[in-house]
Amino acid sequence: MATKCTNCPLKRRDLFTNMSKDDLAFMEKFKVGELVIDPGTPFLMEGSNSPQLYTALHGMGLRHKTLSSGERQVLNFVFPGDFIGLQAGVLGEMGHSVEATTRMTLCVFDRSEFWTFFKHNPERAFDLTWLAAVEEHFLGDALMTVGQRSAQEATAWALLRVYQRADALGLAQGNVVRFPFKQRDLADALGLSLVHMNKTLRRIRENQLATWSNDELKILDLKRLAEFADLELEAPKKRPLF
Questions:
Q1: Tens digits of per-residue pLDDT, 167-182?
Q2: Is the terminal CB of the chain with fewer CB neighbours within 10 Å at N or C?
Q3: How far apart are CA 121 and CA 19, in angstroms?
Q4: Distance (Å, rounded) from C-alpha 80 to C-alpha 98?
C-alpha cells in the first residue's frame, strides 16, 4: 500500500521543514500513488511530456543529458526527498533524463493538478520556487567547480556534498554513507575522463581524506576534505518536502 503523507518517513528528518496538517491533507489529495522501479530504469526522458511528477521516497538515481553522439553529461544525483519533473511541469517537456541507480520508490503526483496546486496553495507554491532556486544555485556551484577547481578539489567538493546530503537524510553510519554509483558517473558530472577520475580518487585515498569502494563512501578526515574542497563545514539548509 502507498505511504500516506502523514506517515512519510522523510518528514521526520531534520533536513526538511515542518508541514501543517492542511498541507499534509492537500498532499494526500495531490498524490495519486507510488511507483517502484528497478535499477537502470529511466522514468523521465529528455524531450518527453510526462503527465506525472515525482518525489523520491526511497533509493537513488541520477539526472543526465545526452548528446546526439551518445555522450552523456551527468547533471546531479537524486536522493530521497528530491522533487522530480518540475521542469516538464512548467516548460511542458523535460530538458534532461532521470533514471534509477538503485531500486527506487517514487511518490507519484498528477501533473494536471499542478496549476490548481499553485492557485490554492500559494505558500507551498513558493516552496517549489525555492527548490528551483536552490537547484539553480547548485548548478552554478557545479559549473564553477568544473571550470575553476582542480580535479582533486572538484572531486573532494563532490564527495563532501554527497556525504553532507546523505548524512542530513539520516543515511550515514558514522563516517560511511552508501554511494551506489560508478566512477564513470562522477567523472561525467565533473567533466573528467575515467582514467583521470581513477587517479584522482587514488590521490584522495592516499592523502587519507576519503575512500570510495563497493558502493560505500567513507570520509576519513571531514575537516581536511572540506579545506581541500574550499568549502565551509555547515549543516545543509532545511528544505521543503513534497
A1: 999 999 999 999 999 9
A2: N
A3: 13
A4: 14
